[in-house]
Amino acid sequence: MERERRLSLYVHIPFCIAKCGYCDFNSYAGQEFLIPAYAQALLREAEMWSAACQGWRAETLFFGGGTPSLMPLAEVERILEGLRRHIGLTADAEVTLEANPGTVDKPYLSRLRKLGVNRLSLGVQSFRDDELAFLGRIHSAEEARSAYQAARSAGFDNVSLDLIFGLPGQTVGRWLESLEEAIGLGPEHLSLYALTVEEETPLARDVACGRTPAPDPDLQAELYLRSAERLAPAGYEQYEISNWARPGRRCRHNLTYWRNGFWLGLGAGAHSHLPGNWELGTGNQDPGIWDRFSRFAAEVSPRRYIELVNETWKQWSQEGTPTLDDMRQVTFREEADPSLELSDTLVLGLRLSDGVSLRELRRRFGHDALESHTAAFEEAISLGLLERLDGRLRLTARGRLLANEVFVRLLPPT
After folding, report:
1. DSSP letter for each residue of 160-191
2. Which of 50, 133, 147, 359 could form a disulfide with 86 if both were Cys (CB 3.0 to 4.6 A apart)?
3. Selection from 409, 348, 346 nearest residue 375 by Cα
4. Of 215, 232, 256, which one is at a domain's C-terminal end?
């Protein structure tokens, strides 16, 4: 009997009540009227991929956005049923949904839990109302607290909180107050992100014209170090540059990304990473023999995504199972060779506190694959940014602060 392969599923929900000033994600405010048609398109896309997914099963499913918690429960149920039917989930699959605290209550979360969502990621960002207003969040600090308690009452025993640090004018004391409140609630997982000024966002325009000061990188570094110092004795292990978890509660879905595994993305702007021969029904082979990898992404506009999926669906119903080339909603495609895959695997894997296994890299990419990176490794080690320990490479504490200095050395030549 052939061995069933594992992948992760990502479902992008691009709708928001309001677009935050710092956000450059593929999300849109004021388009919630598209939700029914969008959910139908997601179901059709999943069904069209079903033949290619034979021999595979999803061990994680992540609803990201945007604001997935804007989806009516009936639509969430339809999507979950369709994914189970067309692609399939393992019995112990981690099923995560991102939620804005201002969009959920106990009845919604209770039903969500009964539908099989077993992990909730709350975008709290801050427990201070003035900071939430600066960020453009639609919820208050009290609503964040209430949403967390509602999640517990609804039966969620795996809750993650997102927080942002290093806002202009934020002091060490103000940040630590938010962090302490988060710790006091007792979530299983915490994601802490430094505020970043992304191009073409309202925040970037405000910084460029002097309305808002740019984040202070030295202050952000101090806040990051103080956070790590506080979270360790509170029982949280840092397993990735920006992520901490109780033992056994690491985000399995995101580990797929950091290990450069395989995932299928559904929805507007969703990205996928799969073996190059995936459509040929040879997915049960050992991943070590794959020498090409497919990366592809869907149309970013929700309205256009719906149109393109429906066009493909109409053709499929007349002509049979579509291939990747037939999928009109796929607007970006790249065939990655092993050298690019190796660089990506290094850059992503070094984000993890465990780092990367040299033995595993050689098994996956060939015995001599790391030779081209030897000089970069030695330079980063000499600078105190990287260390070699027990057959693994990993960032040092200093290296986490200067990770990009390491990563840029590992990129393939252009």
Report:
1. EEEEEE--TT--HHHHHHHHHHHHHH--SEEE
2. 50
3. 409
4. 256
Same domain, 100 and 241: yes
b/e burial code for range 235-261 (CB count within 10 A of at least 16 → b): ebebbbbbbbbbeebbbbbbbbbbebb
Residue 322 dihedral angles phi and psi, to the nearest 5°: -80, 155
Q: Domain count of the chain? A: 2
| Residue 355: closest CA among 346, 343, 342 | 346
Is the pLDDT at 277 greater than 70? The verdict is: no
Q: What pLDDT digit, counting tens, does each position of 37-50 carry?
A: 999 999 999 999 99
Q: What is the pTM of this model?
A: 0.95
**SS3 per residue for 76-142:** HHHHHHHHHHHCCEEEEEEEEEEECHHHCCHHHHHHHHHCCCCEEEEEEECCCHHHHHHHCCCCCHH
CB atoms within 10 A of CB 3: 9
pLDDT tens-digit readout, 314-369: 988 777 777 888 899 999 998 878 888 899 999 999 999 999 999 999 998 888 88
In sequence order, what are the residues at sequence separation of 6 or more whose Cβ sits closer than 8 angstroms to the Cβ of residue 366? 338
Pick from 209, 109, 227, 110: nearest CA to 166 = 227
